[in-house]
Amino acid sequence: MEIFKIYQVDVAEANRIAQSENNVHHHDFEELIIGIEGELEHFIDFKSETYAAPFISFVTKGKTHRVKPKLKARKCLFWVLRFKSEFIAETTFQLYNHFHDQATFRITPSACFQRIVHIAQMIADEMHETQSDLGIVRQLLSTLFTMIESEYRKQFPEGLPYSSTSSTTFKNFLTILEENYRRPESVNFYAEKLFMSARGLNIICHQILQQSVSEIIETRKLIEAKNLLMNTDKTISEIGFELGYSDKAYFTNVFKRKSGQTPTEFRTDIKAIISK
Questions:
Q1: HEC profile of the chain
Q2: pLDDT tens per residue across span 114-147
Q3: What is the spatial distance between Cα 157 and Cα 12, in angstroms, rounded to a whole number?
Q4: Fewest beta carbons less than 10 Å away: which of 11, 109, 132, 254?
Q5: pTM for this prediction
Q6: What gap in Å lies between CA 238 and CA 29, rounded to an integer?
Q7: CB atoms near residue 44 (< 10 Å)
Q8: Terminal-residue alpha carbon distance, the chain
Q9: Which of 19-23, 112-116, 158-162, 268-272 has the least mean pLDDT?
Q10: Conformation bin of residue 210: beta by default, left when phi > 0, alpha when psi is -120 to 50
């Protein structure tokens, strides 16, 4: 598939899906479903549950699942957003804590939910432009996930219980990472903090996110780099140094590989978007 796609599931599409072959499957992209009206029967993690709108569902790459949109009061309307992990690399592991063991959650009807729906519409409008700007789409998608995360924390202030040792270990790794990502620490540093081998930690990270520990560390650094580029006037070298990169060229290369833009290009684009 293309790197990003957004579309709606309405009554006609729900009826089409109901009449077509709909097998359990997995895919090589991330999928976000925003349920506005209707219901969703979701088979995932070897169980099936039905959720009435409004709801949010996020299916990480590689998860085996099946969705069945259903009408409620003869209505059905979902936004479906599909994107490659590299399109917004920081999103996947940020949302892991919320969605890996609980793919779907009901969301309280609120002004916040209406804003979530509005942002999805803005993304769709941009994608329908003759020359759509994926930089704008990327920033809107990031904002969308920030709002979803905020709403999730309101409903689940303590988070959801973890069902496996691997999930608990990964959650603990993210906690330690949050405290140390600005430092130039190695994979061994994090493994030792968790009383395990670097190989064991890498295996867990690959099982959950299909990423190595090093890739996850770099992604967390990227998130902070973007925040600093957007909100401060610090130079590229200063930001790189603050995040543990002593070589500006190496920091720039890592940033471009992870985000598709150089730090300077990102700063220029984001300031243009903010100023609109």
A1: CCCEEEEEECHHHHHHHHHCCCCCECCCCEEEEEEEECEEEEEECCEEEEEECCEEEEECCCCCEEEEEECECCECEEEEEEECHHHHHHHHHHHHHHHCCCCEEECCCCHHHHHHHHHHHHHHHHHCCCCCCHHHHHHHHHHHHHHHHHHHHHHCCCCCCCCCHHHHHHHHHHHHHHHHCCCCCCHHHHHHHCCCCHHHHHHHHHHHHCCCHHHHHHHHHHHHHHHHHHHCCCCHHHHHHHCCCCCHHHHHHHHHHHHCCCHHHHHHHHHHHHCC
A2: 999 999 999 999 999 999 999 899 889 988 888 8
A3: 37
A4: 109
A5: 0.64
A6: 34
A7: 18
A8: 31
A9: 158-162
A10: left
- Tell me how far apart the alpha carbons of residues 236 and 221 are, in angstroms, rounded to a whole number: 13
Residue that the structure tokens 């399109």 belong to: 87
198, 213 contact by CB (below 8 A): yes
The b/e string for 71-96 (b: 16+ C-beta within 10 A; e otherwise) is: eeeeebbbbbbbbbbebbbbbbbbbb
- For residue 150, what pLDDT is reported? 79
How far, in Å, CA of 29 to CA of 15, rounded?
25
- Between CA 243 and CA 224 the distance in angstroms is 8
Q: Are strands 4-9 and 77-83 parallel, antiparallel or unpaired?
A: antiparallel
Are 9 and 77 within 8 A, CB to CB? yes
pLDDT tens track for 31-78: 999 999 999 998 886 678 899 999 999 887 767 788 999 999 999 999
Which amino acid does the sequence have at 58? F
Please, are residues 248 and 259 in contact by the beta-carbon 8 Å criterion?
no
